[in-house]
Design goal:
The chain has six helices and 16 strands. With 297 residues, the protein is α+β, with helices and mostly antiparallel strands. The strands form two sheets. Strands 1, 2, 3, 4, 5, 6, 8, 9, 13 and 16 form a ten-stranded mixed sheet that branches. Strands 12-11-10-7-14-15 form a six-stranded antiparallel sheet, covered by helices on one side. A hairpin with a 4-residue loop joins β8 and β9.
Length: 297
């Protein structure tokens, strides 16, 4: 017997929920904000907007379909089914955090506060779901295959991200390593880390670096199978160089980093708690991932 489609709604706690969890009661949370010149009304309004969007998303699931619900902090323990349709309700970053746990399931991002978020990945409102969900189930929804990036350690550890991968010191101090790329460059460097980003990430951290250094490197589009990389604050010394601090990676190409200090970490999309650690002498290869995010724009 064929099971009906399942819609999984992904979200994270609101600021109000987090404040009450941290301070114990609503009254204590209100006092904390008031003592810093803020009011509870601001976070209450955002909480209400998120709650309204979540209710609308749940109501849009057709009768007879199955439903799932998962918070961001539980994603690593949630079992997605191959035929799931995933609805992320929140900020753009929620879709990025979610992407690494998916294996081809279509994702639609719902913006609970239009005008507040950039709307790069949360491009829809709850009212759109009534038509989008049946279209997604029938394979008729327009899907963008967004390129992802993968880092692989020589011991088999692997990490995949949608926006970018950071490789560097856990405390963002000096990172020492040898950088090697497919087109023949190799250089020992000391820097504050390396950022390797996708076309989706080109609207975030990578773009900030690109703009600040006035780079002439062309940033890729989200669905183009290319990556860009930037070395942050490379330091010239008798033993380290600064000649190779940015570049592009195409299909089949990789940036290889051989660790030259006690340990460096690798994490994706800002989630420092979910990371790989590579120690002295180990190497990490970063390139285009073998899977994409199927994003319903």
């Amino acid at each position: 017997m064929t099971l009906p489609p399942r819609v999984v709604i992904v979200h994270r706690p609101s600021e109000l929920t987090e404040l009450q969890r941290r301070h114990g009661t609503r009254r204590h949370a209100e006092f904390f904000l008031r003592s810093r010149g803020r009011t509870l009304a601001e976070v209450q309004a955002r909480h209400d907007a998120l709650d309204l969007a979540l209710r609308a998303a749940a109501d849009a699931v057709p009768t007879g379909w199955r439903r799932g619900d998962v918070q961001r902090g539980d994603l690593d323990r949630f079992l997605f089914e191959p035929t799931d349709i995933v609805v992320a309700v929140g900020q753009d970053g929620l879709v990025a955090n979610l992407a690494k746990y998916l294996t081809g399931q279509p994702v639609v991002g719902i913006d609970p506060e239009p005008g507040r978020n950039p709307g790069v990945l949360v491009t829809r409102g709850p009212a759109d779901l009534g038509a989008l969900l049946p279209a997604a189930a029938g394979g008729a929804a327009a899907v963008t295959h967004r390129t992802m990036v993968t880092a692989t350690c020589d011991d088999g550890q692997e990490l995949t991200a949608l926006n970018e991968i950071y490789l560097g010191h856990a405390g963002h101090q000096s990172s020492r390593y040898t950088l090697t790329a497919d087109h023949g460059i190799s250089e020992s460097q000391s820097s504050s880390g390396i950022i390797i980003g996708t076309g989706t990430g080109a609207s975030g951290w990578c773009r900030s670096i690109w703009r600040e250094r006035r780079s002439t490197l062309q940033l890729p589009e989200p669905a183009v199978p290319e990556l860009v990389w930037f070395v942050r604050e490379a330091w010239p010394s008798p033993a380290t160089g600064v000649d190779h601090t940015e570049g592009r990676l195409g299909p089949g190409q990789a940036l290889r980093v051989t660790i030259g200090c006690d340990a460096l970490v690798v994490f994706g999309d800002g989630l420092e708690s979910d990371r790989l650690t590579a120690t002295w002498g180990q190497s990490v290869s970063i390139g285009i991932a073998g899977r994409t995010l199927r994003h319903i724009a």
